[in-house]
Design a protein that fits this description.
Layout: H1 2-10, E1 13-17, E2 31-33, H2 38-43, H3 50-72, E3 82-84, H4 87-99, H5 107-119, E4 125-127, E5 137-145, H6 151-160, H7 168-180, E6 186-189, H8 195-205, E7 209-213, H9 226-229, E8 237-241, E9 246-249, H10 255-267, E10 272-281, H11 282-285, E11 290-291, H12 293-309, H13 314-321, E12 325-340, E13 343-352, E14 360-366, E15 368-374, E16 377-381, E17 385-389, E18 410-416, H14 425-431, H15 445-451
Parallel strand pairs: 4-7, 5-6, 6-7
Antiparallel strand pairs: 1-2, 3-4, 5-10, 7-11, 8-9, 8-10, 12-13, 12-18, 13-14, 14-15, 15-16, 17-18
């Protein structure tokens, strides 16, 4: 009965902690008495109040639960650290992904797609690599294509009036999911310019996009990605053509063969195909991507946007934020292209203006900027990023065809280290200049810039 009376009396205690308790309960913080509570007062010094005991027990239980969550992760059914992207973050990501691309891009098209999706009420979420559980499965979806498509196939398809299919990326993803017998928990960006597709697919699947990328930039060939250089194959993979043909690559010799086969399907299918590939566990993901690539894209986009809004030089701002180098600025004097084997090959020549007057910059393009020369001397090369920009906006200009430069356009070129992961022996093997048929070794951009001659006006 005394215990019952004590418990009832304790409900009149407020939750104000006393700095130093004078009761016989060392280590406990007592509650101040709102008004006289004789049962508790009588027992102070003999035993602690039951309410204090309950409070302490609650603190202990909470501490134990916190430790368990830290050790074993969030409870089942609770989503790990996923956050909703704001509209401004998405717009900055579109611009920044173009700046990462190492070629021209169509930012306006990407922005338009995302604005339309936001207007439809779609939500876009992102998760960091570290927050992806090891037992999740991720997928990457993109397009394979380029120049040199079989024209006779296009002509025959038109005569047959073959219907085309929509949402090829979704179709490829569903087919790969069915083949694997697994649902995908997150989407990973394939390359810089395909960020809108990754976000839209993730939204359709109701999953987050991972703050990462397989390449950190755009690249012409499938094997030029981080998973492959770290021993993670891109297969199983599924290709879906514009007419709905579905091709499953269950197993291939290596990613070079994935490139061969996927490119062949694209060339034989009107010049392009969708591909769902690189199904990775959360554990493999942590060694198979460039982390923070989408956050970097948002930073690049925000940097260029704010520079323009504030009347500053966006190119100079991007050189600073990329920790990169100003390579050249001038007018496009030559831009010869031919399409072959699923790629667009460009021979580009830029005549210097301003500080770079009387100097010439040449760029070798295989869908993307691969090697650049200043007055005939190698000045930058892949896997480092060589990015052509609009001097007024900092955006990657739309060159029309893939990898293109518009004759007479004023362009600025910057360069920076894409990722240390690309500078490994395997990375240089698949993405260095010798891979593209040049007879010189890869030299890091910072070394080339230290060696370059001083460019002066006149």
């Amino acid at each position: 009965m005394a215990a019952i009376r004590l418990r009832r009396a304790c409900y009149r205690w407020s939750r104000v902690r006393l700095p130093y308790a004078k009761s016989g309960a060392p280590g406990y913080s007592l509650l101040a008495i709102e008004r006289s509570c004789s049962p508790c007062a009588a027992l102070l010094g003999v035993k602690e109040c039951l309410m204090v005991r309950r409070s302490v027990l609650g603190i202990v239980v909470a501490a134990v639960v916190a430790v368990l969550v830290f050790l074993v992760g969030p409870p089942r059914g609770q989503q790990p650290g996923i956050r909703i992207l704001t509209g401004q973050e998405i717009m900055d990501m579109m611009l920044g992904s173009s700046i990462q691309a190492s070629r021209g891009a169509n930012t306006a098209h990407s922005v338009g797609r995302m604005k339309a999706a936001i207007g439809q009420g779609k939500k876009f979420t992102m998760i960091s690599v570290d927050d992806v559980p090891d037992d999740w499965t991720t997928v990457t979806v993109g397009g394979v294509g380029g120049g040199g498509a079989w024209e006779h196939v296009r002509e025959r398809a038109q005569k047959q009036n073959l219907p085309t299919v929509k949402h090829g990326g979704v179709r490829a993803t569903e087919a790969l999911s069915k083949y694997l017998g697994k649902k995908f928990n997150a989407v990973v960006r394939l390359e810089a310019v395909q960020v809108a597709g990754a976000l839209l697919l993730a939204s359709d699947l109701g999953v987050p996009v991972v703050d990462a990328c397989l390449s950190g930039r755009a690249r012409p060939e499938i094997e030029q990605q981080i998973p492959w250089i770290n021993g993670i194959p891109s297969t199983p993979a599924v290709l879906v053509t514009g007419w709905g043909d579905t091709v499953i690559l269950g197993k291939t010799v290596d990613d070079y063969r994935v490139e061969d086969l996927a490119r062949a399907v694209a060339v034989a299918s009107g010049g392009g195909a969708y591909v769902a590939m690189n199904p990775m566990s959360g554990r493999d993901l942590k060694r198979g991507v460039i982390r923070g690539a989408l956050s970097q894209a948002m930073l690049f986009g925000k940097t260029a946007r704010e520079a323009v809004e504030q009347g500053r030089d966006p190119v100079a701002a991007l050189v600073q934020v990329t920790n990169g180098f100003m390579l050249f600025q001038g007018t496009v004097a030559k831009a010869d292209m031919h399409g072959e084997r699923g790629f667009n090959w460009w021979d580009v020549e830029i005549s210097g203006t301003g500080t770079y007057a009387r100097h010439t910059y040449k760029v070798y393009v295989k869908n993307e900027n691969i090697v650049a020369w200043l007055d005939g001397v190698p000045d930058a090369m892949s896997p480092d990023t060589i990015q052509n920009l609009d001097p007024k906006t900092g955006d990657a200009p739309n060159g029309g065809l893939l990898g293109g430069y518009q004759l007479g356009a004023e362009v600025a070129l910057i360069g920076y280290d894409t990722s240390p992961m690309w500078r490994t022996p395997k990375g240089i093997e698949v993405f260095g200049p010798r891979h593209f048929g040049f007879d010189f070794d890869y030299v890091p951009i910072e070394q080339l810039q230290r060696q370059r001659k001083v460019v002066r006006n006149g």
